[in-house]
Amino acid sequence: MVVTNKQWVQIITLVALFATITLGGVAVYFRTHHNPPRTNNVTVANTNTSSTTNVGTENTNSTNIASNTNSQPNGTAENADIFVVAQSVKGIQAYIYSPVEQKVVDTFDISFKETLAEFGPQTSWGSNSPVQYNPKTKAIVFVTEGASLYDGSCLNPDGTCEDRLYQYKTDNKSINLITRLDNLTDHWVIDPNANAVVYAEVDGTKQHFNKVDLSSGKITQLSNQSLAANTGVADLSISSDGTKVFQTSKTSINGWFEETVSLNALNLSTNRITSTQTYQGPAIEYETNVSGDGSRISFISDPPGENATVMYFDHSQNKANEVYRGKVSNVGTVISSDGTKITYYANGIYFFDVNTKATTHVPSTDSGNYALGWSPTSRYLLFDSKTPGLKIYDSQLNTVSELNFGSQSSFDILSVQWLTE
Fold this sequence. Notes:
By secondary structure, this protein is mainly beta. The protein contains one helix and 31 strands.
């Protein structure tokens, strides 16, 4: 029997909660490939000039752009903005930050009564962010959760249990309900070229890929995939050229002692799926990462009681390569869009350059830092820190700068995303 990711998350959450209660309040997470939840605090613009829109209503009030007038010189050369989402009392607050101008150039307060999907890539393996941005339409898309992961109770205000997909249009500050589905919160990604959401559902030994048109709400079946027994699937990512959707999957052959990791690629033109086994070995962590062109996958083999091995699979060589062997302070990796830089954690953030074979420690980082993503040019690395704030590392200059969000207010980060046109 194959248990779906959502069912596993329910089981994992209950186990973790039980451990917290029975071990004197200390949260103990068993080896279930589940990252301990953490609070990411960021210094953000605390302004009263942003618009507030409620689900089901349209706000016609004008909106002033939240910005910092004390912009500092020497901004990054990266011509790509950063989308940052934070939790708010009534819903979410979203920011568009310009690294070049070193300031927030847009902010949006979005209010809704439903429950935002609880799990994302920063708290749970194999899950996409519950809030994503479409750079082509400049719309914010988010998923709300209809059923509790703890006891299965219905969460929607009307007593129903379905997940809901919403779209917030930043031009007129309106929210539209796109569709209702039973299981949408785990694996979904925006396809900007088609103005659609591609999502995957696991049903027993089958995985179904579907598409939701964000203009009409029409759902189209794309493809089906057979899954081997004891297979778990990870989050979806769109390729750099927008032609494919990538996903890794992991199959346990002999428990943790022997596992395989594969790359699934859904061609959005033909709707055909290809699956390539990339590695077989012990205790492969779910926190795999795929480069934007799909040429390389980074992952970690972490057998219990042994040193971890950070690795990447290179399709051009058709082999797995070792990056680092030793103790890691976090099991995740982050690979750059072009597949040339791979981050890992060993009491700080390090990155391995595939071309030069050099390893570099990101300055001023320790076990409290987490890499969040490389910029589209693969030059800049966005990461968070123990102290409130987001920072950018310049791999060419080997320097770190802090994102300037103006007046300070501490929020929980839900999502970050580098934006490209």
